[in-house]
Amino acid sequence: MHTIWTGERVRLRPFKDEQEWCDALQDTLIVPNEFWGVMWGARQTRQKRFEPAGMLEPGKHSAFAIERLDTGELVGEEMHGLEYRPGIVGYVGTFIKAEHWHQGFGIEAKQLCYCYLFENYPITQVWADTLECHTRAATGLVRSGMRFDGRAKCFHCIDGKYYDLVCYSLFREEWERLPIREIVQRGG
After folding, report:
1. Does residue 142 sit within a domain?
2. I want to staple 78 with a disulfide (CB 3.0 to 4.6 A). Which of 64, 125, 157, 184 is the partner?
């Protein structure tokens, strides 16, 4: 199972250590995220999640570091894992630091993670979700190859206002037609 996946703009790789993982999450853990509100956890809890496998535990909630190829900078994290609905289904979640938005890094990171999930697990589908007010994230999901799949009404409350959760998915046969499969480099 490869742990490095390289595209044209970014590389997915393991985090070097817990501090690098925390640095990738700085925008969402410390600064209130404009779409999700305050998302933070105690350092001990984060440390317990990181230590066993460096956030890359096969089949469980994991995360890759997203690294820019041109500068080598850490630009965010690509979360992923498996869920056991009827059958096994993969999921992705992308966090890009604000200073790296609008450059296509998140779209390519998602596509590289699709390759990781479909090539390593017997899944038929990968899904992702975001809040209806987070139109930039929804656009990124569509541009990465996903389709709108549905919504959960009044899912999340920010400052007393409720927002729907919008869901997107990509099936294996759709992924098989994505150009990223021809571009991706697997391994070190």
Report:
1. no
2. 64
Q: What is the CATH number of the domain that holds 18?
A: 3.40.630.30
pLDDT tens for residues 113-141?
999 999 999 999 999 998 887 788 899 99
Domains: count for the chain:
1
> What's the one-letter identity of residue 16?
K
Type of residue found at 18:
E
Give pTM, 2 decimals.
0.83
Give the model confidence (pLDDT) of 56-107 as tens digits: 566 667 889 999 999 999 999 998 988 866 668 999 999 898 899 899 999 9
Residue 62 to residue 81: CA distance in whole angstroms: 6
DSSP-assigned states of every residue in 49-108: HHTTTTT--TTSSEEEEEEETTT--EEEEEEEEEEEESEEEEEEEEEE-GGGTTSSHHHH
**Closest CA relative to residue 132, chosen from 159, 105, 154, 110:** 154
Instruction: Give the Cα separation of 48 and 54 in Å (integer).
Output: 10
Residue 72's domain spans which residues? 5-126+181-186
